[in-house]
Amino acid sequence: MPPDSCMPDGPAHDVERVRADFPVLAREVHGRPLVYLDSAASAQKPQSVIDAVNRCYAEEYANVHRGLHYLSEALTDRFEAARRRVAAFINAPEEREVIFTRGATEGINLVASGFGRAFLKAGDEIVLTEMEHHSNIVPWQLLETERGVRIRVAPVADDGSLSAEAVADCLTARTKLVAVTHVSNTLGTVVPVGDIIAKAHAAGVPVLVDGCQAAPHQEIDVQALGADFYTFSGHKVYGPSGVGVLYGRAEYLEAMPPYHGGGEMIREVSFRGTTFASIPHKFEAGTPPIAQVIGLHPALDYVAALGLDTIAAHERRLLARATAALDAMAGVTIIGRAPEKAGILSFVVDGAHASDIGTLVDKLGVAIRTGHHCTQPLMERFGVPATARASFGLYNNDTDVDRFTEAVDRVRRMFG
């Protein structure tokens, strides 16, 4: 098999050294070495993240903010250092524009609630696309029911690409927000969000970007993109579950009412009324996900140290290897062939339901995802009930790809 240590289109990526940082990759499944190709659902964690979370609970734990004792003050400093790390990771203009949430889903719901109450009325329009995750559809549908706003949907091309023009064609004088994914979790399509934002801003429309699948695969610069809101989840970028990030322009966040009410997000409370804390704390009611935030910091350090350009080049090579192998198999159809893709490969096998594919390859030690991937409108667009999906991460190697494609070929022959 070709070596993994040198990539033709990017800097060297020592994948075997990287794999040693992820304890779970040393285990076996069904008597075979684990091949983990489900990072788009949730990525595995390096030892540095595991150690940071364990140390937080074992040696450092206290509630953050407002405490005057040593542990509280020390962990508050680390908590806020993580906020600064996130701001640097996405190049946010100010760290106060970084809000910690339970995940990207909560980030989108926060915007739908706060932006909706502050800026939207009956008859206003929100533009989505056919490739959105349910988390970037359902909150807007709730707003549609509650406030009478209207949703318009930009179409996806037959190859799975999405053009800025398709989104721009949906803009009207009533459009008040565009909400779009940066990278499709089902197709792997890299969306030209910079161009979309430019066209939306030219019409005076702000843009929310769902960056869950972009953050692990490419550099994120919210200032260069011009994003008004940008959200991603910690667990997809090799950090803990239970924590996410919402970046928002201060001008919008300051105008939006709180999403949740409770402790921490207040300045003063009485039965005569309440005044709220400044951003970001206005949107961080209650005890936050402390250990998860602490663990997010080394996760971002880890991917930054490897280099997101290097990671992207490595994953592109794996994607090309897997794509070529599946293309050579009769009866296997890849869904989504946009010119620019991240390391996500969806496919169907003639005569086999997606769940059968997933079950059979699992018996061979290969973990993939099957189903509609929380993108049922996109499944309808491509005329399939479900797909099987392999998603590549910074720890996958050529052996993983070859064992995956050999497993798919075995499924194909069983059903064909």
State the main characteristics.
globular; 4-stranded antiparallel sheet; Aspartate Aminotransferase, domain 1; alpha/beta; 416 residues; 17 strands; disordered N terminus; single chain; 2 domains; 14 helices; 7-stranded mixed sheet; Aspartate Aminotransferase, domain 2
What does this structure look like?
The protein has 416 residues and is of the alpha/beta class. The chain has two domains: 140 residues, Alpha-Beta Complex (Aspartate Aminotransferase, domain 1), CATH 3.90.1150.10; 255 residues, Aspartate Aminotransferase, domain 2 (3-Layer(aba) Sandwich), CATH 3.40.640.10. 39% of the residues lie in helices and 17% in strands. The strands form five sheets. Strands 4-10-9-8-7-5-6 form a seven-stranded mixed beta sheet, sandwiched between helices. The protein has a four-stranded antiparallel beta sheet with strand order 13-14-17-16, with helices on one face. The protein has a two-stranded antiparallel sheet with strand order 1-2. Helix 3 crosses helix 10 and helix 4 packs parallel to helix 5.
CATH top level of the largest domain is Alpha Beta
Shape: globular
Query: Can you tell me the CATH superfamily of the largest domain?
Result: Type I PLP-dependent aspartate aminotransferase-like (Major domain)
Estimated share of beta-strand residues: 15-25%
As a percent range, the share of helical residues equals 25-40%
- Report the total helices: 14
Beta-strand segment tally: 17
**Could you give the order of strands across the largest sheet?**
4-10-9-8-7-5-6
What multimeric state do the chains show? single chain
Helix and strand composition category? alpha/beta
* Radius of gyration over all CA atoms, rounded: 22 Å
Q: CATH topology of the largest domain, what is it called?
A: Aspartate Aminotransferase, domain 2
